[in-house]
Phosphate acetyltransferase
Amino acid sequence: MTNSPKGKTIALDADGVLLDYSTAYAHAWAKAFGTLPALRDPDAYWPIDRWAVERLSGERLATFRAAFDEAFWSTIPAIEGAVEACHRLVDAGYRLVCISALDDAFAAARQRNLEMLGFPIADVIVTDGETGDVSPKALAVAKLRPLVFADDYLPYHRGLPAAVHKALILRAPGGSPNVGNELADTDSQHVDLCAFASWWLRRPQAR
């Protein structure tokens, strides 16, 4: 979607940075059980805390998981202002790539979702989602060698190449995992992608 050189690549997470997974979660609940859950805590980081839903097991859990199908991963709404933020970055000469922790089976659905929303994303890379001492996204970031990696989940910044600017998108604070000593390992922190784009493009180096 852009002819920007590889050396000006910015890597972006999808859920929580580009896409509003939390809202989509509520609609998956409605698809599975017939009722849209009420909002419990608008500042909650995790969807299960944001919405008035119960923790599931057994058949009800299987029913809910079945709602996370091709249609679900193709229709997650954009976070407010995220599409515009991406276009601002592309207009400034950056190439955008999405690195998302997602099952390979839904990679095409993720790309289709982003395209339908108007995101100027050049490529979508999917990785494992299991966290440990090193981010499951670290290998993809190392191969891509972007200028920036932006993600809303602090453990996904572990073990990234030192040359990559690690931008943490903080978003909702309630019960957030984005706390503690590891915050010092990030290079910048922002409330959302809009804030990151504005900050990045204002830097003296950007001019």
Helices lie at 21-33, 47-50, 58-66, 70-74, 82-91, 107-117, 138-144, 193-202.
